[in-house]
Design brief:
The complex is a heterotrimer of chains A (about 270), B (about 80) and C (about 220). Chain A has about 270 residues and is an all-alpha fold. Helix content of chain A is about 70%, strand content about 0%. Chain A has helices spanning about 1-5, 10-45, 55-85, 85-120, 125-150, 150-165, 170-180, 200-230, 235-240. Chain B is an all-alpha fold and about 80 residues long. Chain B has two helices and no strands. Chain C is elongated, with a radius of gyration of 18 Å. Classes of the chains: A mainly alpha (about 270), B mainly alpha (about 80), C mainly alpha (about 220). Chains in contact: A-B, A-C. At the A-B interface, helix 2, helix 3, helix 4 and helix 8 of A face helix 2 of B.
Chain lengths: ~270, ~80, ~220
């Protein structure tokens, strides 16, 4: 079992897995986003207090939840990369970071568009919005730290440390929700078993969450495949995959695709 | 399970919140499409890069083979000329 | 053996910092200047200043400590001492703890000495001043320990300065919230043990975990 899991540390195996999973994520994402959003926009009953403006919930809540989820996933990737020295785990981390940042951004401006009719102002410094903003800064920190290094091997490790430091902020974010208790509605769906929103509204919300999650997975897989190819451009397995005939005798400094068998550090 | 709006005009009006609802849905769609197409574009570009490198490798190899043939041909002609003398 | 090596590193860092007093004074000057700007910007009304004073001092303290932070590992990285630390039999994380403590001591003592003056500037009451001192005492080592991670990550980069602030400021936000809320409670003569306890717990977590992260980051930076 352990050996089987560890085999995904190899880029070629991870690439293969990405290619297998990718269409499924794409199908689930497209289908459930279309179903969930149409259901939410047209068929869910409107809120008796907020009228139809509450329909923003069907993108606000999924993106807010999954922005945090993606950060945790990124930090887990970083942990796996640091502890077991998986190169692919860092690639996963780098792949998911921009997607998570976009999700955080979506949750911020949908919150703002929801806040304007409800509170009468575009921005309020309440706990949720503020912690989402901090989350966006954390994402940007990880991304810019990764971009600052020339050596991407080193960059992955450094950004990984930053991601793990940032993930300690996630419980503090939740704590801060308790700490200031302001205008934003209480956590509507995290109260498992006793959801405070009605069932006909909940189903499309759950479908939308599934759709957003699958969308994040889909884009992350595309980006991860990119990252794997980009990092392993000059390795034999990429050459083999793209049908490059290997020369019988490689001269030094040829820089032919797939010419260097020796790994450039790490596994 | 039925349509909660009387007609399409009411649907697009969203109970008076049309601007907020459609703006947030529209911008979300644009953001998601942007990250998706950026990723796809990147993968296309990387594939092109790999293809370019592949073509370059092939070019190098064929050029090398051609040069080898040429040299052999030249040597053969030279040896024939030497024999003639 | 380990103990004497650590003491030697501590002494070396302290005396190095003393010999570069000018560099040590720059963050302090920055701290005072930022605080001077606020009464000029928002008006000299004592009530306003008292209300925002705690927050201003904390923001200025975080920014000035960030400015001074960069030199924590920079010289050691530049002259190769860091490599020797990594290779030495003394555990790297103990060395990191000692260096962070030395750095904190050299940067916080002047801040403490100058703060009564600033409390006067911003019209803080005695209770607020005590709360400010307590939060600074518990909060600044937290800044040093967590900040050391960022410094260790960016030490190998030439353009690390702004990036360091970008990485670290979001992480200090909870600290800022609890510290300023403690000072606010003090201004209303309410107990603020809870905030102090929270900052102390964050400090303990960071003392326990950050040296390991710093040691790993230094190894990554040294490559």
């Amino acid at each position: 079992m352990w050996k089987w899991i560890n085999s995904f540390a190899k880029p070629e195996k991870a690439y293969w897995l990405c290619s297998i999973l990718l269409p499924w994520f794409a199908i689930v994402a497209v289908v459930s986003l279309v179903v969930g959003i149409i259901w939410g926009l047209g068929f869910a009953p409107s809120d008796y207090q907020q009228g139809d403006s509450f329909r923003i919930i069907y993108i606000h809540v999924p993106s807010a939840i999954l922005a945090m989820g993606a950060y945790v996933a990124m930090a887990i990737g970083a942990l796996v990369g640091v502890v077991w020295q998986w190169r692919t785990a860092f690639m996963f981390m780098v792949a998911i970071a921009p997607v998570g940042a976009v999700m955080t951004f979506i949750s911020l401006f949908t919150g703002s568009f929801w806040g304007k009719p409800m509170w009468g102002t575009w921005w309020i410094w309440d706990a949720r919005l503020t912690s989402q903003l901090i989350l966006l800064f954390l994402y940007l920190g990880v991304i810019s730290l990764y971009a600052a290094f020339e050596d991407k091997q080193q960059a992955g490790k450094a950004a990984g440390v930053m991601a793990m430091v940032g993930v300690i902020n996630i419980p503090i974010i939740h704590f801060s929700v308790e700490w200031w208790n302001t205008l934003h509605q209480g956590a509507s769906i995290t109260k498992i078993g006793k959801p405070s929103i009605a069932e006909p509204m909940l189903w499309p919300l759950l479908i939308c969450i599934l759709g957003f999650a699958a969308f994040i997975g889909w884009v992350t897989l595309i980006r991860m495949k990119n990252e794997i190819i980009l990092r392993d451009m000059h390795r034999p397995w990429v050459a083999k995959m793209f049908g490059v005939i290997r020369p019988e005798k490689v001269r030094r400094g040829d820089k032919i695709l797939g010419d260097s068998d020796k790994p450039r550090g790490g596994r | 399970m039925d349509f909660k709006f009387e007609n399409m005009t009411a649907f697009f009006d969203m109970g008076g919140y049309a601007f907020f609802v459609w703006m947030s849905f529209g911008l979300t769609f644009i953001c998601m499409a942007a990250i998706l197409f950026h990723s796809l574009f990147m993968s296309k570009k990387i594939k092109q890069g790999v293809e370019k490198e592949r073509a370059r490798a092939e070019r190098i190899l064929t050029a090398r083979a051609a040069r080898k043939d040429k040299m052999r041909e030249k040597r053969r002609i030279e040896s024939i000329e030497n024999e003639d003398e | 053996m380990v103990g004497s090596a650590l003491i030697a590193i501590f002494k070396k860092d302290i005396s190095l910092a003393y010999r570069q007093l000018a560099e040590l004074m720059q963050p302090l000057m920055f701290f005072i200047l930022v605080i001077t700007l606020f009464p000029l910007a928002v008006g000299p009304s004592p009530d306003t200043l008292q209300r925002i004073g705690g927050g201003i001092i904390w923001v200025a303290a975080i920014l000035s400590l960030l400015l001074g932070m960069e030199r924590m590992f920079r010289d050691d990285y530049a002259d190769g001492t860091l490599e020797q630390y990594i290779l030495s039999p003394t555990p790297l994380y103990l060395i990191v703890v000692v260096k962070v403590l030395a750095h904190w001591l050299m940067h916080i003592v002047p801040l403490f000495l100058i703060s009564p003056l600033l409390a006067l500037f911003l019209n803080l009451t005695m209770d607020m001043y005590v709360a400010l001192m307590l939060t600074l005492l518990l909060g600044t080592p937290l800044i040093s320990f967590v900040g050391a991670i960022g410094v260790a990550l960016t030490v190998g980069l030439q353009k690390g300065g702004v990036l360091l602030a970008l990485l670290l400021i979001p992480i200090f936000i909870p600290l800022l919230i609890f510290a300023t809320s403690a000072i606010e409670s003090a201004s209303m003569l309410l107990p603020y043990h809870q905030q102090l306890a929270t900052i102390a717990s964050l400090l303990l977590i960071s003392v326990a975990l950050s040296p390991m992260a710093v040691a790993y980051s230094l190894r990554v930076s040294q490559n």
